[in-house]
Amino acid sequence: MKRPLPVSVLLFGIAAARAVSAQDSTPSAPVREMVDTYFGTRVADPYRWMEGQNSPELLSYLNSQGERTRSVLGALAGQRGSLLSRILTLQNEVPSITDAQRVGDKYYYLEAPPGSKDRLLMMRAVAGGSARLLLNPALLGTSSSHAAITYFQPSWDGEYVVAGVSLGGSEDATIRIVQTSTGELLNDAITRTQYGSPGWTDDNKSFYYMRQQVLPANAPPTAVYEHTRVYLHKVGTREQSDSPVFGSDVNPELRLPRAGFVFAFPLPGTSLLLAAETRGTIDTPAVWVKSLNARNAPWRQIVRHEDGLLDYAAKGSILYLLTKTGAPSGRIVRFDASRQEFSQAEEIQRESDLILTATGSSGVAAAQDALYAYGIRNGASVVIRIPYDYPMRSEEIPLSFGGSVSGLNADYRVAGFTCLLDGWTKPAALVSYDPGTKQLKDSGLQPPHPADYSGITSAEVEADSTGGVKVPLSIIYRKNLALDGSHPAILEAYGGYGISILPNFSPTRLAWLERGGIIAYAHVRGGGEKGEAWHLAGQKQTKQHTIDDFVACARYMIERGYTSPAHLAVRGTSAGGIAVGGFITQHPELVRGALDRVGVSDLLRFEVTPGGDANIPELGSVKVEADFRALYAISPYHRVKNGTPYPAVLLETGLNDPRVPSWQVAKMTARLQVATSSKLPVLLRVDKDAGHGIGSDRQQAAELMADEFTFLGWQLGMAGFAPH
Fold first, then answer.
1. Closest-CA residue to 628 (of 38, 135, 44, 185)
2. What pLDDT, on the 0 to 100 scale, is given for residue 17?
3. Could you give the CA distance from residue 632 to residue 622 in angstroms, rounded to a whole number?
4. Cα radius of gyration rounded to whole Å, the chain
5. First to last CA, the chain
6. How far apart are CA 722 and CA 705, in angstroms?
7. E strand or H helix that includes residue 456
8. What Å distances lie between residue 539 and 190, 376, 533, 574, CA to CA?
9. 3-state secondary structure of 111
């Protein structure tokens, strides 16, 4: 006989029922159908009117959707409050260190102290001692928008630090400069520097940086990255006096493309200046060099796009290049930039079973003693040391455990390297390598997190996918888990740009795991976990493989009893919106819930977004028939069908998103709400002071996680939540 539910559960059940009934009051979106014809195929688009620069009508729709979502989740206030409290506790037990780099005898890094919303720019001596605050971004915020530091770079002598500061998660950075000896924030302020990439000169008085153009009146969104330029700025001067040194309209003789990204970096200890141009997200750069000693010296091209450059490091005029040309798993070559070019390069690290990559970390870093390179083998990070002396024989650096290395960096004047090391159940530590003792030493910057992961374990398995492919799958769960299919599980995938999902420690992840939940990561094709061939197998016309692999990993977890369709949710972020959107439109029967986080949804119209051109090398173009047909076949927005029982979906957007505009997510929301027959909620979460997630403060991150875990706890039947 079934036991009666306690009064508290009955009352919560009523609240949950009210939350569900809110589906009936969904703010409707007007349908104004447009039809496009691509290569003889007519394609309807009922919500084209949403596109553009956040029109008043779209903002009104987003606002009403956001209010409805807050209302629905508000009915689950007790559970959300408990989750948020736990997340904040885990988040704030110790300081969180990110983006650490060593320059000379100092560490420079971002630190989020316990209880702080913001990441502060800090400095500390390598030898130890107290740290110094250099910049609190909150001082540069406004009443309506918080500020965040999105990049920084110290000068070689440590006297100055350039920092890019953006508002409201927009990534639209303004360069600011801090003088470390006085702590003064200088008056220098350079706008339109989203990807500033500052490169300091040897005299520590000037730096090169990339800047976007002032957009002409009525310019289309795609014009934002046209005619980008590299400028030289002298500390203490006005930006108006900065001289352009590289760009499509600065160097017409080089025939650079109208749209793209340009960068310049002096080679320290030399009179050489490198400049690079890349057209898009995976387009490997072309590189030029010139002498700064000779007046009006011409640029000389030393690397071409087809040379497959992934990363470089320099020791004097000698360039060390990580390349994928002729080596899908990567190889390293070197040549003298003062007189040679890539075609004359000498190979110093041949291709092997170690996948050399620049995703998630610097690919190569030049120290005083040797070159250090980053790679992946069997899902774990590896660092190798390559002596400068010839003949060279590389050696692997023993790491504390099989986890992830991120932020690999070195100073050409100092021996060894610095990096962050962590794993699924291993807290992060910022460590430095001493080649003299051949030991890794904890810097002490990142205190070990006390989150109790002793009851948590992880499994590395493989799922069978289409074409006989084995897809790596990482599953994190409580020890002694009964494989009875009853556990709420979140399965995440990305699968784009050759980016790998590697073991990483998240204290706040414990808020889900300790309640009996599972979190898993599908290392699908399109990522870089198995090298460039793995990436290409989920790109452009093969992108369906990304979705196939995601589904295969879900089936693995279901068939082996980790979870079941009634308790499984899928999650994807940004380009991962293709994976999660493809999953729920192709196999809605396999999942109960989905988190679509700032996800790419309309693949036929992504090309007209500000970053659309830059993504063509990865996704393809609707102007190419084969690409169009592949994109149309998997585009989540176009695959939604009326009368289909879709799972519960929480979609998310930030109004200041420069990468995936809110209208992409809004169109998918409107389409799903009209089409679904399951009566499960389709909600749109809107953050007016956020963008793509980069630059969100820690409170925003905690609130978002609490909303996600609450939504999924409710929908997946987690203990403590009402029956769904």
1. 38
2. 40
3. 9
4. 26
5. 20
6. 20
7. strand 456-464
8. 37, 20, 10, 15
9. strand
Q: Strand pairing partners for 209?
A: 231
| Cα 93 to the center of its chain, rounded Å | 25
Contact indicator for 323, 310 with CB cutoff of 8 Å? yes
**Type of residue found at 495:** G
| Mean of per-residue pLDDT scores for the chain | 94
b/e per residue 66-97 (b: at least 16 CB within 10 A):
bebbeebbebbeebbebbbebbbebbbebbbb
**What are φ and ψ of residue 75, in 5° steps?**
-70, -10
Q: Which amino acid is at 470?
A: K
Structure tokens at 182: 């006085």
Q: Are 585 and 640 in contact (CB under 8 A)?
A: yes
Cα–Cα distance for residue pair 383/395, rounded to 1 Å: 9
Take residue 293 and report the two structure tokens written for it. Answer: 């000693």
Residue 96 vs residues 91, 92, 101, 178: alpha-carbon distances, Å: 8, 8, 15, 22
User: What is the rounded distance in angstroms from the CA atom of residue 118 to the CA atom of residue 699?
Assistant: 9
Exposure string for 541-550, b = 16+ CB within 10 A, e = fewer: eebbbbbbbb
Residues 6+ apart with CB under 8 A from 463: 470, 471, 473, 522, 549, 552, 553, 555, 556
State the virtual CA torsion across 244, 366, 439, 123 in degrees, nearest 10: -20
Which residue type, as a one-letter code, is found at position 136? Answer: N
For 220-265, write each residue's pLDDT tens digit: 989 999 999 999 999 999 999 999 999 999 999 999 999 999 999 9
- The 10s digit of each residue's pLDDT in 583-625 is 999 999 999 999 999 999 999 999 999 999 999 999 999 999 9
Label each residue of 386-432 as H, E or C: EECCCCCCCEECCCCCCCEEEEEECCCCCCCEEEEEECCCCCCEEEE
- Give the DSSP H/E element, type plus range, for residue 576: helix 576-586
Are 613 and 606 a contacting pair, CB within 8 Å? no
Nearest partner of 578 among 614, 615, 610, judged by Cα: 615
Query: What's the pLDDT tens digit per position in 677-696?
Result: 999 999 999 999 999 999 99
Contacts of 131 (CB under 8 A, 6+ apart): 111, 122, 123, 124
User: Under a CB-based contact definition with an 8 Å cutoff, are residues 712 and 188 in contact?
Assistant: no
> Residue 85, SS3?
helix
- Judge whether 487 and 477 are in contact, CB under 8 Å: yes
- The type of residue at 121 is L
355 with 533: CB under 8 angstroms? no
Task: Provide φ and ψ at 4, rounded to 5°.
Answer: -65, 145
